[in-house]
Amino acid sequence: MDAITGASNFDICEYIILQLIASFRGTNTTIAMLCKTSVARNVFVEMKRTYTEYVSCDILEFDAKKVFGISASACLLVIDLSTNNFSDDICNVYSFYEPQKIRSSFGYVGGKFYSNLSTGGEDFSGSCCFEWRQGVKHDCSKVMELSLNGISFVNGLKESVDIENSYVFPLIKSSMFKSPIISDSDKYVIVTQKKVREDTSHIASDAPKTWHYLESHKEYFLKRKSTIYKNAPDFSMFGVGDYSYAPCLLKLCGSHSKELFQMLYRHPVMSFRKSMPATI
């Protein structure tokens, strides 16, 4: 349920890898999978939590932008399962292009998890004062996401879109967090709900042009496969709630290898699900 509503940081690739580990547990099997680096870390932590036996768990990072054209940290995760009652506390990180040289490592020291042991293992353990949530998800980008072309909107189908502004919000994706101050965005998203499974029929009277636009593209919404849309109101979304409209948001984006901090002035602004906003 947390995965469906957006309350968790769920990834289908992570589930597949864990299912493979469970299927071959107790054997001398090597599992190698391409995945996001964050998924690889989660898999390592889960193996330690479930006392899974393995000889080694290594990450080989590569340039996902160059190979796949995506702005995300990706790797080849290699796990050597074992029949012996042993699991290493450390996961080494290599470059795919220099697999003999350890670039960094993370893991457990004294029962505590450290994300980067090469920095000296500072202890930042504690309780977080924020409630973290994922960004909105609609699975219909060609219809729901708009670009501003002069004074008019254009959708992903290259169609000019004439709708009311009531349900249109600035959209910020993690790839946009590159400059110290972000004052504007040329990307927008239609947000049809304030909470999951909220009735959307009122849009027909509140914003008739918006409703007509959505109705005229209904075929795209009907193609969506996620179970969250089953028996749900028309044009439903998920990963949306009161926190999406909070007066102040702290957005954490994991697509950059170097830490960057930006000030975003415009509000309310929506973040795509790859970003995780925290209400404060």
Task: Describe the protein.
The protein is α+β, with helices and mostly antiparallel strands and 280 residues long. The protein is built from eight helices and 17 strands. Strands 1-3-2-4-5-6 form a six-stranded mixed beta sheet, covered by helices on one side. Strand 4 (90-95) and strand 5 form a beta hairpin. Helix 2 (12-24) packs parallel to helix 3 (37-49). The longest helix has 13 residues, at 12-24.
Biggest sheet features: 6 strands, mixed
In total, the number of strands is 17
What is the terminal separation in angstroms?
Answer: 24 Å
Low-confidence stretches: 274-280
Question: What is the N-to-C order of secondary-structure elements (H for helix, E for strand)?
Answer: HHEHEHEEEEEHEEEEEEHHHEEEE
Strand content is: 25-35%
Specify the overall morphology: elongated
The number of distinct helices, counting runs of at least 4 residues, comes to 8
Structural class: alpha+beta
The side-by-side strand order for the widest beta sheet comes to 1-3-2-4-5-6
Radius of gyration: 22 Å
Percent range of helical residues: 10-25%
Let me know the average pLDDT: 84
Main attributes?
single chain; elongated; six-stranded mixed β-sheet; alpha+beta; 20% helix; 17 strands; 280 residues; disordered C terminus
Short description:
The protein is α+β, with helices and mostly antiparallel strands. Helix content is 20%, strand content 30%.
Topology (elements, then pairings):
Elements: H1 2-5, H2 12-24, E1 30-36, H3 37-49, E2 54-62, H4 64-68, E3 74-81, E4 90-95, E5 98-109, E6 112-114, E7 131-132, H5 141-144, E8 145-149, E9 152-155, E10 160-161, E11 168-172, E12 181-182, E13 187-190, H6 203-206, H7 208-216, H8 218-222, E14 249-253, E15 263-264, E16 270-271, E17 275-279
Parallel strand pairs: 2-4, 11-16, 12-15
Antiparallel strand pairs: 1-3, 2-3, 4-5, 5-6, 7-17, 8-9, 8-13, 9-10, 11-13, 14-17
Helix pairs in contact: 2-3
